[in-house]
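Hey, resending since the last one bounced:
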Amino acid sequence: MTVHTHQMTRAEHLCAQYELDFAEVFSQQFRVEKGDARPLPGFALHRLGHWHVQVAAGLPSAVAETQQGTHVALLGVAVDANGDVVTKQHLSRQTSADDLITYLNACAGRFVFIVVTSQFSRLYGDAVGSLGAVYDPQDGCIASTINLVLTREVVENDDYPLAALASHAKARFAFGHTADKYVKRLLPNHYLDMEALTQHRFWDGQGDITDIAPSDTPAVIDQIADRLTQVMAGLATYFPDTKLPITGGLDSRVLLSCAEPFVDKLFLYSHAENMMGRRDTRIAGRLAQILDQPMAVYDPGRDPDYAIDDAVRLMTLSNASQIANGEGVLGTQISQVRLEVLQAPPRGGIVMRGNAGELMRAMLWRRAIVEYKNNTTHDVQTGLRMMMLTDNEMLKDLNPTDRDKLMQDYNAWYADFSGTPAKRVFDLLFIEHFLSHGQGNHFYAFTHNFYLYPYCDRKVLSLITSLPPDHRAELRYTEAIIATRAPELRDMKYGRKPVTVHLRAMRNEDPNWFFNRD
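The structure tokens again:
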């Protein structure tokens, strides 16, 4: 491992080149290095043993020393198993390093935590890697994103066949790859050995992901809903400015149903990017009315108060976004209405999203549910296709050598699982690659608010994954939560007509179809 030389980061160079405020663009990010660290503008410095941790002003943090001398830094927002937002006091009350690690790995939220003892130094991420972390073995540094970890130019990643396409938003990164040949992403359910800069799996689903008996399903649904309620209540209590965007879809309605007991503490809003989005806002508005709550609507296309008509500002926001997450071609404008929508809600506070709720609908299974029903051996080709790394035509057109590389990465990853977890491979793909390489990286560009999803909780994800995927795809369990938590929202139509038609047909056949049908 090469020792770093305290040079400027690539992030600082790019911000200077494009005349951007570094402290604003990287306002929710962090950088970790051994020994003395070159100060980053607008970042606070914390010392954990011989490690220096720099944290931006917009990234919540708690740094403490436990009763037995373990140093710990929690970066981001975590809600513990009791529903409390974790603070310095919670950390300092922990005893051994093992207890501390167990405690934090049972938390929901969007965070990483660093644990330094006399025996080891480790960095852990949340259950889906939603607060991303990357590391550069060449320079010995760890950071939130590729531009903040690098003090050199990007070396083209010829180890990942889809790297060039992914850098142009025409494909996705996976298997820990980034745009740089040497920089790797820490995958969920792994910890990073900070001395060796190697990652190691600590959770493989064994004992947590099981085949749930039909008779146990109602209790499991209650556990999922109770934890979602607990997490959101904890956030709303600790952060007075907690927001919940709602749409005409399923995932946000499940959250809204679980938040019903304290919905008056939340700032509800909906947004429109197109005609479909306007349909969503109308449905969302009706949901808010049913709960007798106000709801803001952000529609830049029809409301000039939220439109950005300054071309320079739009390009500035686009460049800032792409520099912040290290992906995309600089100088290419991101969708104007998307930038307007991101900037529209009041600045600050927590934005709770329904991401990872897609597991309740078995999103990544699709036609592969036949594989589950027939109990057939998992097919790698199907797995690669279901990952949606790029469109099927581009995947088919890969040369044999590049396809072999992807298959080798896939097989190496899949080899970590056995038993029931191995049969839930599509859920684990979604958790460990789709979300971590996606939102885990891209959310860093959403600096107007701090985004997180209440579903990001290892216990919740394990319970959902344990439910039969074919029944999830039938929307039984989203229906069950809404019907038991906020039944007044149940009959309101959805943004997608087929969903409304399907659910109404099932209800007409049996009002309790979500639990009682075989």
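The chain has a mean pLDDT of 93.

Sorry for the duplicate.
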